Amino acid sequence: MSVETREAAREQARATRPGAMPTYLALVRALWLSWTRDKAQVFFNLLLPLLFLILLVTVYGSNDVPASRVLAVGDVPVLEQVADIEIANAGLEFSEVADEDAALERVESGDADALITQDGQFVRVIWSQTNGTTGELAGSRLQALVEHENVELLAEPGEGLQVGSGGAEDRSLEPVQYLAPGMLAWGIAIAGVFGAAGTIVDLKRDKLIRRLRVTPASAGRFISARISVSLMVVVLQTVVFLGVAALLGLRLSAWTWFAVPLVLLGTFSFLAMGVIIGTIAKTSPGAAGLSNMVTMPMAFVSGAFYAVDALPGWMGWLSQVSPMTHLNLAIQAVVSLGEPPSTVLNHIAYLAAFAVVMSLIAWKTFKFDEL
């Protein structure tokens, strides 16, 4: 075909091309149907993160947490004022011991989750760091029980109790409350990175952009439709994921709706990363491998599988660089903790800046002539 013939074909295509909006909507519909019919994409984008959430919640425990084993050293008057039913509801089982040193040794060895002592108006709580989560949970439950009793004491004439505690950092969230935001952020990353990288590799292999230049669907409209479908997928992910997490015990706050704009913002960062990977990769298996190399380590340092504050120092620094960390913490704040959007502005700013930087890198490294 001569140059004149190709130019004539392009001019004829542009002349007969329908309006921008009908073409765009038709492309969105076609790409959406293509995604829903691709069982592999549905599994990796929707089902895989949900399966991990169910598995981890089952392992760490959600609402059915075993009672904490607590040693009461000597006389602890505050416990005598608490009804047995309140102690049972608090998830605590007490054993009386006389020797504080022996009790402390049992707590340090993990034979007990915590100990409690009282000297006058001062109550001391020490929980086991050896037992990890169960020790922290025991300390949190004990402090809550004593503080509840303290409120009743302060309502009457007299002096309130002073509570001192030691051990690991208090984490008042149930496992599902920090696992669900992390697993959702991981699912968003998978959808963005794998989706964009796979699309770029397919475009390079099939030379689809060149073909679109002589069709009513322009390259710009196709790319816009592809991005729109990616955003639709993450909104569906968010709704389904939070719904299932609520069934597993996640307490949704009044600000849960703000998770949608957060995941949309985070998606742009992951899409840009996927474009960079798709530019580097030559084949679909290569794109999948590189995407795994990015998303899996990112998930481990971003709190997807456990709380971020459990990371060691050097991994904590890496965690702050990861966009998944900021997406995870922002979702956790508005969904699990019920904090308003104004408290996550730092995470929003980082996600926006990261998306801009990754987009600029993708633009500079992308080879348009390969399409």
From TrEMBL:
The keyword Transmembrane helix applies. Keywords: Membrane, Transmembrane, Transmembrane helix. It is a multi-pass membrane protein. It is found in: Membrane. PROSITE patterns: ABC_TM2 (PS51012). Residues 139-369 form the ABC transmembrane type-2 domain. The chain crosses the membrane at residues 42-61, 183-203, 223-248, 254-277, 289-308, 344-363. InterPro entries: ABC2_TM, ABC2_TM_bact-type, Nod_factor_ABC_transporter. Pfam families: ABC2_membrane_3. Its main location: membrane. It comes from the Bacteria. This is ABC transporter permease. It comes from Glycomyces niveus.
